[in-house]
Design goal:
The protein is an alpha+beta fold. It is built from nine helices and nine strands. A hairpin with a 7-residue loop joins strand 8 and strand 9.
Length: 264
């Protein structure tokens, strides 16, 4: 029996990025529809991939294969008011197509699955989307000298028309600085990422409580946001001081975003 395997998301995203930058318009924010049309016409894929945008009740995005064919369709929910989220969902579903179409024939994504960082397949699609929408060469060229705070995070999001969470994941992944990004709710960490040079963190994993003495915890208690960096001492690492900046998601889901930059 043949084992069905996925393709590496970073490799696949970089391959499409090279096509777009070397042979396409090389304009950003990326035009996903134009990329799909151009990339698939110049690839060894002999099937069909099309996009349909309509109102759907059960999902935000879906990739589905027509039975007994090589015809695939990306379905996007037109009811998503946040167009950046819809855009990331589009790239996420393209990631399923590029990386996982040999794994199964249907991928249906809700807000919950898109934010399920424990699921390997969904996490790979998110990584693909982040790398595709925000190429490393542009991030390094345009944002390597910024301070890591929520104001900078918003600037990156505006540049590439991506959500704050996706922008943070991508920036921290390419940053040479000791940085981290934490998503929490009600004082509990839901998800976090950090750069390779960032030190051990006292709170970082799913289920950890925000550390005592951090601005993240005090902001959660007071409900006051702080876009500028503030010194939080050694609350995140007992040997290295850090600065942090807060942002609250006012969509009703109660997420709190924290940008952390450690002293060198």
């Amino acid at each position: 029996m043949t084992t069905k395997i996925s393709r590496p998301p970073i490799k696949e995203a970089n391959r499409l990025t090279r096509l777009w930058q070397d042979h396409g318009p090389n304009t950003y924010p990326l035009d996903i529809s134009a990329l799909i049309d151009g990339a698939l016409q110049n690839s060894d894929f002999s099937g069909e991939l099309k996009t349909k945008i309509d109102g759907y009740d059960s999902f935000e995005g879906c990739l589905v294969k027509t039975k007994n064919t090589e015809k695939w369709t990306i379905l996007l929910n037109s009811e998503i008011e946040n167009k950046r989220r819809q855009r990331f969902t589009y790239a996420h579903e393209l990631g399923h197509f590029m990386c996982h179409r040999n794994v199964r024939d249907c991928f249906e994504d809700s807000h919950e699955t898109l934010n399920n960082f424990q699921d390997e397949v969904e996490n790979e699609a998110n990584v693909f989307a982040s790398w595709l929408l925000m190429p490393a060469n542009l991030l390094r060229a345009e944002f390597s000298c910024i301070g890591w705070n929520t104001a900078s995070l918003c600037e990156i999001g505006n540049r590439f028309e991506c959500s704050l969470q996706a922008s943070a994941l991508r920036f921290v992944g390419v940053s040479s600085k000791p940085t981290a990004f934490i998503v929490s709710r009600d004082g509990m960490i839901i998800w976090g990422c950090k750069s390779k040079s960032a030190p051990f963190m006292t709170a970082y994993r799913f289920g950890d409580e925000l550390p005592t003495g951090s601005h993240a915890l005090s902001a959660q208690v007071s409900g006051e946001r702080c876009e500028l960096q503030q010194d939080s001492g050694t609350s995140w690492n007992e040997h290295r001081a850090a600065q942090e900046s807060q942002y609250f998601d006012y969509s009703g889901r109660g997420y709190q975003y924290t940008c952390i930059e450690f002293e060198d």
